[in-house]
Every structure is written in C-alpha cells, then in structure tokens.
Specification:
The structure holds three protein chains of three kinds. Chain A is an alpha+beta fold. Chain A contains seven helices and 14 strands. A five-stranded mixed beta sheet of chain A has the order 2-1-5-3-4, sandwiched between helices. A four-stranded antiparallel beta sheet of chain A has the order 13-12-11-14. The longest helix of chain A has 16 residues. Chain A is globular and about 55 Å long. In chain B, the strands form four sheets. A five-stranded mixed beta sheet of chain B has the order 8-7-13-10-11. The chains are: A alpha+beta, B alpha/beta, C alpha+beta.
C-alpha cells in the first residue's frame, strides 16, 4: 500500500495505482479530468495532457519534486508522494492551455452535434476554457465519412485520444481502422474505404469523448437532453446485455452501454443489443438512469431522490473522512 | 589521447585493413581479452563522457541503469537518426570512418552484455547504410563479429536498420517503436528503456559519436579521456558548423575552446563569410535558444564563452543556451531572425508525431502565426501570443520535441523582439523575402542613439 | 507500359533478401522488418506504395493491413501516390535557407515549369521541398534517390536536370548513382 496526498487530502491506495485513480478514490473536485485515459482499455492515456498534475514530493524515500508536470493517468503513486491538482496555479494554467489547444481546430459545431450535452470536451471547455479564441487561422477540416453502416466519423471533431483504436484492438480481433498520417494531419481512418464491421465495433461510439464517432441510427433524432435514459437489460449470449435505453415516450431512440461517473464503460455491449433491439418490449426495464445533477441531460428531470443512493453517498463521505478505500458509486443495481 | 577524426585524411581509412593498420579494433581486443564487462563500464564512467546526441546525459551512468538482473536479452541500439537541423557530424563520421562506430558498437555491446545490437540510421542516409553494412561484413570476415569473437566466449550480431523519414525517431523511445516496425510515437516514461526498451527488454540507446568515443576510452583509460576538456565537459566533441561562415564543416574540438576562436580561427569556421558581421548563433542544433553575437561570444558576466556544456548554458535561458548536439548555425547581419525562426518552427510542425495535444496543435499554431508575421500580416499581439503558446507547450508534452519547438520561439523573441515588431510595423519593407539582405536590420534604439 | 502490369510479387532474389531481413529480429518480432521492407517494396514497385503493395507487405509479415497503412503514412520517405521518375527533394530548413535554398527551389520551378509538389507533364520530375536532411555544412542541397547533391548553385541544378533526364532512370533510395555534378 502507498499513502499519497492529493490537494492536501491523504488516501491509501494499492501499489501501482496511478495518481488519477488514487484521486478517483478520494472523489470530488480533486479528480483530474481525462480525455484519453480509459480505465477499461489497456495502455490508454498520457496523450491528451489534460490530467497533468504537479508532484511536489516524489516519495517519502526521495522527496524531490518532479521537474515537470506529469500525466496523472499514467504516473504510478509512490508511498509518501504529494500531489497538487486544483491547488496548483501552474496545473490550472497548463490545463487551460491544453483545453485551448484541443479547441483551436475543433469546429465548435455543438449546435448540430449529437454529442452535445454528453460531450467531455464541452464539459472541459466549460470548466477550463477561455471565453474568447486567440486563434485566427483557418481550422483544420476533414470530410465526414461512414465507417460501416452504423457509425459516422466526423474527423474534424476528433481530439486523437486513440480510444477507438484500443477498442478495436482489445475488443475485436480484426482492427481495420487506426491513426494514419502524422502531426496535426493525423486522422482516424480505415485508409481505404472499408467498413468497421464486427460485433463490438459500436463501443467505439461510447468511448469517443467527443462527437467524432456517432451512432448513425440516432443521428439528429433528438437532443440528448430531451430523451429519458432508462437502465435496462436483456439476456444476451454475446455480451452482458446491460444497457441504457435513451427513450422518448415509448420509442427507443438509442441504446448505449452504461457509463460510470467518469464517463467510462466498464461492461461493453454487442452490436446486436445496440442496434437491433430498439423496442421497449425487448428489454427488462430497471428504472431511470441516474444522471449527474449538473448535467444538462438531467434538466427535464424525473428521477426521484434515490434514498439508497443518498445513504451510500453519505456513508462514502464518512468513510472518505476516515481515509478508507471507497466503493464504486453510481453503479446501477444489476 | 586519440581523436575521433585523427585519421580522417588517411586514404582508405573507410576500409577494414587501413583502419586496422591505424590502431583500429584494439579496444575490442583489449576489452574482450583482458577486461570484464563491468570494467569497461567503469572506464566509461570515469571518462565523464556525456551523451553526444544532445541531452548530454553521462553515458556511464546511463549504462549503469541497465537492468542486468532481468532474464530477458539486453540490447544496445545506436541512435544514428541524426535529424536535428544544423547537425551532420554523425553522417560525416559514418561516411568517412565507419569502422570506428562498428568497433565502438562491439566494445560497448560487450560491456552491456548485448548479443544482438542495432544501428538505427535515418532513412535518408541510405548510402551511409550501405557503407555501414559493408564495414560490418568486413568486421565479420575478420572475426570481429559473429560467433566467438576473437576466439572468446563473446558472440555478437550487429544489424543496420533504416528509418523512414521522421525527426521524432531521434527520441530514444520513438526510435525503439520505429525499430519495432511501428509509428514513431514516443513512449510514456517510466518505464525507461534501461528497464523496458526494445521488445520490452533492457536496452541502452546511445548516439553514434558517444559509442565511437568508447574506443579510445577503453584503449587509453577513462582517466586519460577525462584529462581533455574542462570541468564536467570532458573529451572532444564533433561540432557541425553551418550557415554564414567561410568554412562550414565538421570540426573535432576539445571541449572548452573559446567560441570566438571557433568562429574566427582559420582552423575552424574561418570567420563570417563575405566580410560581414556576426549577428546571431544557434549553438547546439535548432532546438537550443538562439543567442545574439554579444551573448554568444561573452557570457552576461563578461567572461569569454567556451564551447562546453557548462559555459554555453551559463546564465540559464535568460542569457545562455546549450551545447546540445553541437549543431553550430551562424547568422550574419543580413539574416532575418523571424524568417529563420519560421523555418525552424515549420520543421517542428512538420515533425511533430501528433500524439499529444500541446505539440500537435501548438507547433502548427506557432508556425502559422510566424508565417503571418514574416510575410507582413502580423499584429503586435501576435508576439506575446507566440511567447504564451510556447510557454504552454514547454514541459507539457510526452517527449522533448515540445520543448525543442518552444525554446527557439521564446529565445528569438527574448533577444530580438524589436525585429518582430519591425515586421509588424513595416509590412511593406518585409514583403521581399530577402528584406535584410537588401538592408541589414538596425535596431531603432541603436539608430536613435539610446 | 509494362511497368504498370507488373504483378505484385517480389522476385525470388528480393524475397530472399526480405527473408534474411526478417531473421534479424527475434522470433515473433517480424514486424520490425516493416520499414526496410517498405523501402524495398517502394523501390521494386515504381517508386510508391499502392494499397495492394502495402497489403502484400502485410501478408509477408503476417500483420494487419492497417498496421502497414499507419506506418507508411507516418514516415515521409514513403510515397502513397505515384511520383515522377526522379523525385527531387530540396532541403529548405534554416541552415539551407541561410545559404540560398529558396533560390534553388525557385530555379527548379522555373526550369521544370512546375510548382513544389507537382510533377512534370512527361512524368520525369516531381519537385518536393523537405525538412533538414543533415547536410547543413554543404548547403544548399537536395536529395534524389539515395544521392545527396550538395553546395548547389543554379548552374549545378541545370547540369543535374540534364544528367537525370538523359540517364532516364527511376530514382530510388535503395541504389546509389552518385556522380559528381
């Protein structure tokens, strides 16, 4: 076990835990944002640089500070490490810089983007972005293309997190898309016009932090905040069958995997569940999906106060004050 | 102490026989027959030899980090991906005396316990690859490579690997990725190559010149090597001299040589061409901060600036620079600092791997702004914008390419801000790409007698 | 035009070289041979890497085609579109610019009547500007195939164009035809 202090809060975590995951065990404000790291996909992280933090003490044994800000998602903690995230002006400045870099070539087409309302870049820009742009050059653009009959690729919106390539590598055995070219000409592509076609390809949509990969079956159907998300499941022999149905009245507009409070899917779903069961009768409805109250999606809200969850939240706070290992929250009952 | 380029003018020195006649491959004999691998490493440590690729990290210390407990094979990989603008010393050395690198590779591989080693050469140097392959064949034919070298237990295979055109592969982990047949995306560290490098095995990556220097360190001892130079800058260094000088080329200098002597002596650069005045120098390859004439010749304290790691960095980035890879680029009074910087920034934009956001987006942004300023479309705010963008790239990227792109921008504005302002104020005067060749830039403050 | 219908298959001799290259790396690490083999493939198949050629390389190395596309498109020496018989690559980075690279590029544009990035109508020359080739002490310079042409002047450019035109050979990184110009 290693004791680490993040923004003045001490937590004890298993050896080999990254700073980011240690912060997630504390929870709340001290958790650095992450645009490319994805805990259920091996080797992700380190690229977007929004999770940079300052290590003011390397370890109890070697208390020297680290010379540069480090990517918290890929830096393991050491016993006695002291980390600053939101308490460091340097970190906040750097993060603001990274957000600006991510936005200079982004089309800012949120008004017509299906991801709006559940977009990590939108949230990040809201918290760390500047109101005005300093970028007066032409923005980089790409043609939008279909990669397969169910997924639309808007390369112009992509932030090159590489998550979708890891999905293809780790969830399927035949990766046909990847990152081609280099530098700011890099793009997600199949290179030749080829369909991404396998049973788990739809998960690329869920892991995409922006609107670069969207579900064609949901395209322009509804703003996400006008839908009601419901937790549901079905017996599926290919995947866990646990999903979220994004509904309007009795219509199922979209099916997605379930994401935790950090926007991460822990249990991936197959394409059959995602695309072929857009009928309420195909599913056992568990109840409304809990949506963070700060999210625009919860604006028209209908979710009753979940006493069980409230109790868990309070217990979590108490445990946290005692420096205990914390259970995952926001996991809907199976 | 034998110099790297000592026999450079001997006819046929690129062949095994002539090289051998002039003392070549002695270090292999000495190391394999009379020294343990650790003793060789110890000599390299004692020599104080610092990495000649640019970072200047002590080579012996890098060797000592190699995980020798691992049961995986160990690798030595030579970084011959020389691509830093202003640097061409490795090409010169490999072309003229290929065997000194092969000899250094054998001796160093022995010290590190590597049984297979690779020389990764930038793809554009394809003709150098042919030269090295021929040298390897000669060494093998003479019993210096392959099984049981010189009848000892030690066996080594040595291969040359071509790159495909990517500056970033000079970064050691990008090089290893490339050698594994992948895109040259630098890895996140830790783990460092000493623990998990090529094929996730313990690996040392050293520059061509570093490995070549091992030969005379082993032949004549680390202590002898350390006698040359000044302070922690021991030994000799190959300097690639380019730009507005009378005698561009590669020069082997003893570290500690005064910069002024290097620029003006006929033994080296031979002074500024066309009888013009010195304006600025980029002393260690395009990545290091540019310095105006007065600061490259003398430190801010007024002491003569020396060609050494310490003296060149005296004053920090405020008034100093770095020795870097030894790519010494000289500019005369007609050079436009903005245009030169634009070509550098265009280079980094072109060479960014695109993996992490600050470098991918920031290098292109800086290039576009610099292009505008240079072509007479800049605004005054652009100058501070550049400083700020550079600051937001620096230190925040996966690999040092971000720093390498940021430092030239920050330093050019630090020392030559007036010239940037001139481009904004007088767009008509900079429309001709050769504007300062027609009339050298004169500081308005100087003209006003301030 | 027999060149274009050449089947996508290495000659026995080339295949032998390819197999020897693969043996340079440990078992299971044959992907390491990708860059050397792409160079060979480009030289064998008309100076550029078409999709079928890259797929062929993928099959030799037992890797996915996308792995080849990713790599080939990352490195600047691999041409993913056809190029002229002689690919002229003029260095334009700082040290070359300081010694007149712009004049060399301009002269080529005038002489060949094409802009940078274009190919002459007869398919003989493609003009390209590149970043630092490590020949700053002999600037300005260019690369054509594996050959470096250094200390360029406009007169030397004229001679070179004539020489390349009369030899009428495809430039390749794999073979050296270097002669003094």
């Amino acid at each position: 076990m290693a004791k680490v202090t993040i923004d003045g809060i001490e937590v004890e975590v298993a050896d080999g835990t990254t700073i980011l995951n240690a912060a997630r065990q504390i929870g709340g404000e001290v958790v650095p944002p992450a645009m490319c790291y994805y805990s259920s996909l091996k080797d992700t992280g380190g690229k977007c640089r929004v999770c940079l933090v300052k290590v003011t003490q390397g370890s109890a044994k070697d208390p020297r500070p680290m010379p540069k800000l480090v990517a918290s998602c890929r830096t393991p903690v050491m016993d006695g490490m002291v980390v600053q995230n939101i308490t460091s002006q340097e970190v906040l400045e750097a993060r603001k810089g990274v957000v600006e870099f991510l936005l200079i070539n982004h089309p800012l087409d949120c008004p017509i983007c299906d991801q709006a309302g559940e977009c990590d870049l939108q949230n990040l820009a809201y918290e760390h972005g500047a109101a005005k742009t300093r970028y007066e050059e032409d923005r980089r653009t790409f043609e939008k293309i279909d990669i397969g009959d169910k997924i639309k690729l808007h390369m112009t919106r992509c932030i090159l997190c590489y998550r979708c390539t890891f999905v293809a590598d780790q969830l399927t055995n035949e990766r046909v898309h990847g990152v081609i070219n280099r530098g700011d000409a890099s793009e997600i592509s199949t290179y030749i016009e080829k369909a991404v076609d396998n049973e788990f390809s739809g998960n690329m949509i869920d892991v995409c932090p922006v609107g670069a990969l969207t579900d064609k079956t949901f395209r322009f159907k509804s703003r996400v905040w006008f839908t009601k998300p419901l937790d549901a499941h079905r017996n599926c022999d290919k995947c866990c069958g646990k999903v979220v149905l994004w509904t309007k009245g009795d219509d199922v507009l979209r099916v997605s995997a379930r994401k935790d409070q950090y926007g991460e899917v822990k249990e991936y779903i197959c394409n059959e569940c995602r695309y072929d069961h857009k009928n309420m009768n195909d599913w056992t409805i568990e109840g409304p999906r809990h949506i963070d109250k700060h999210s625009v999606i919860s604006q028209n809200h209908y979710e009753k106060i979940d006493m069980q969850k409230l109790k868990l939240d309070i217990e979590r706070q108490i445990q946290f004050q005692k420096g205990k290992q914390l259970p995952e929250t926001n996991q809907s009952p199976a | 102490m034998a110099r790297l380029l000592e026999h450079i003018n001997v006819p046929g020195i690129n062949t095994f026989d002539v090289y051998r006649k002039h003392g070549g491959y002695k270090s292999v004999e000495k190391a394999l027959k009379t020294m343990t691998p650790d003793e060789v490493t110890e000599e390299v440590k004692k020599s104080g030899l610092r990495g000649r690729g640019g970072a200047g990290f002590p080579a012996g210390m890098k060797w000592s980090f190699l995980d020798r407990k691992s049961d995986k094979p160990r690798y030595l990989v030579c970084n011959a991906d020389e691509s830093e603008p202003g640097t061409f010393k490795d090409r010169y050395l490999m072309e003229k005396i290929p065997h000194v690198l092969i000899e250094g590779m054998i001796t160093s591989s022995y010290a590190l316990g590597a049984k297979t080693s690779y020389i990764y050469v930038r793809g554009e140097y394809m003709y150098i690859i042919r030269i090295l392959e021929k040298a390897i064949e000669e060494a093998r034919a003479n019993g210096f490579l392959g099984k049981n070298i010189l009848g000892t237990d030690y066996s080594l295979e040595l291969y040359v690997q071509p790159g495909g055109g990517a500056y970033i592969c000079g970064e050691e982990t990008a090089l290893l990725e490339s050698l594994e047949g992948k895109r040259g995306n630098p890895r996140l560290k830790p783990p460092f190559p000493a623990v998990a490098g090529l094929y996730a095995s313990p690996t040392v990556v050293n520059n061509v010149e570093t490995i070549s220097a091992v030969c005379s360190i082993v032949n004549e001892s680390g202590d002898e090597y350390a006698k040359i130079g000044v302070g922690k800058s021991t030994g000799t260094k190959l300097i690639s001299a380019s730009g507005h000088i009378n005698k561009p080329g590669v020069y082997e200098i003893e570290l500690g040589l005064p910069v002024e002597e290097f620029i003006y002596s006929d033994q080296y650069c031979g002074g500024i061409w066309k009888g013009r005045k010195l304006k600025a120098v980029v002393a260690g390859g395009s990545s290091v901060p540019i310095l105006p004439a007065e600061l490259i010749l003398k430190t801010a304290k007024g002491e003569p600036r020396l060609m050494s790691y310490e003296s060149l960095s005296d004053g920090g980035f405020a008034t100093g620079t770095m020795l870097g890879s030894g790519g010494f680029i000289v500019m005369d009074e007609t050079a436009c600092i903005v245009r030169n910087l634009w070509t550098f920034t265009r280079f980094y934009h072109h060479e960014s791997c695109g993996q992490c956001s600050p470098c991918r987006e920031g290098t292109g942004w800086m290039e576009k702004v610099l292009h505008r300023i240079e072509h007479g479309h800049g605004h005054m705010e652009d100058i501070d914008l550049l400083v700020d963008v550079a600051k937001k790239i620096e230190g925040n990227t996966i690999c040092p390419l971000g720093d390498a792109a940021a430092w030239p921008v920050a330093s050019a504005i630090r020392h030559f801000r007036e010239e940037f302002e001139y481009h904004v104020k007088y767009p008509e005067k900079v429309k001709n790409p050769k504007h300062f060749e027609l009339e050298p830039f004169r500081s308005e403050k100087v003209l006003a007698g301030v | 035009m027999s060149e274009q219908i050449k089947p996508i298959q290495f000659s026995a001799e080339t295949m032998d070289l390819v197999q020897r290259i693969i043996k340079r790396y440990p078992e299971g690490r044959q992907k390491s041979a990708l860059l050397p083999i792409l160079h060979i493939a480009q030289a064998e198949f008309d100076g550029w890497l078409s999709t079928p050629v890259m797929d062929y390389v993928a099959s030799i190395l037992s890797i996915k085609p996308i792995e080849v596309y990713e790599v080939a498109s990352f490195y600047t020496m691999f041409n993913l579109e056809p190029v002229g018989k002689c690919l002229i690559e003029v260095c334009q980075t700082g040290p070359c610019w300081l010694r007149g690279a712009d004049d060399i590029v301009e002269h080529f544009e005038k002489k060949l009547n094409i802009k940078v990035g274009e190919t002459t109508a007869d398919g003989m020359f493609t003009l390209k500007t590149v970043e630092c080739l490590g020949s700053c002490g002999t600037a300005p310079m260019l690369q054509c195939g594996s050959d470096y042409y250094e200390n360029l002047t406009t007169e030397k450019v004229d001679t070179l164009i004539e020489k390349l035109r009369s030899s009428n050979q495809r430039s390749t990184y794999m073979k050296s035809n270097m002669q003094e110009i």
